[in-house]
Amino acid sequence: MKGLIELLCDFDGTVALEDTVDLLLEQLADPAWRILEERWVRGEIDSRECMAGQIPLIQGGWAAIRRILEGARVDPTFAGFAVWCRRRGIRLRIVSGGIDRVIHYLLAREGITVDEIWAPHLVEDERGRLTLDFPASTGRTRCGSTFCKCELFAGRMPRPLRILVGDGRSDFCCARQADWIFARDTLITHCRAQAIDFLPFEDFAEIRRILELRVLRPSGDKLRVSSPSLTSG
Ligand SMILES: [Mg+2]
Ligand SMILES: [Zn+2]
Question: How far apart are CA 120 and CA 48, in angstroms?
Fold first, then answer.
């Protein structure tokens, strides 16, 4: 039954309780990162241009990043949720506009395994200078961004039920393409403003409860998908 349901889960502010990219920029980067951030928020540059400009401003290489990450917290309900997804044959993909190595590091620290980590790739040269490589699957997408999650929701048959879990701006443009959305923080505001159905969530234990109740119906050892019908939270 693998592939029937795909859970596309944001990382920063969703799995990690704080935004790890913001944390690293605030602690380690030249203050010029804020100028890029403001331009991104105003929509003058897209997230690829923003991140590609910000990451080289981080000082101290991976060693400095790892020190900062010691204080980064992962939602304590996520580890159990990942095990449950595997058991139920739900494909769990971390899809993030953040930094792949940070995600790999924090999930390994917590002993968490997921099916895929899709995120920009951190490259460090011998002098500790950092740059980002973007996933090959990203190109100019239907929303016009040169880097976003829209492509992950495109075509492919048979199409799995695609569930988005997210909290913020990196989830905005792909939100309309998801079959179900679990949202918190500014993603809630966005969904309300755009009249997109969503379910609010506190943690991953709550997502599991809702999926068990409304999506997965036990019938023998098979999973069945009930048709999604949402009400705005
Ligand atoms: Mg986020
Ligand atoms: Zn997009």
Answer: 9
Whether residue 153 contacts residue 177, with contact meaning beta carbons closer than 8 Å, is answered with yes
In this structure, which ligand is nearest to the CA of 153?
A: 2
Residues 159-197 have pLDDT tens digits of 889 999 999 999 999 999 999 999 999 999 999 999 999
What is the CA(128)–ligand 1 centre distance, in A? 26
Q: Where are the domains of the chain?
A: 5-16+76-214
pLDDT of residue 96: 96
Distance 227 CA to ligand 2 centre (A): 25
The number of the ligand nearest the C-alpha atom of 18 reads 1
Q: Is 215 exposed, middle or buried (0-12, 13-18, 19+ CB in 10 A)?
A: buried
C-alpha gyration radius of the chain: 18
Phi, psi of 116 (to 5 degrees): -160, 145
According to the model, what pLDDT value does residue 187 have?
98
CATH 3.30.2310.20, applies to 5-16+76-214: no
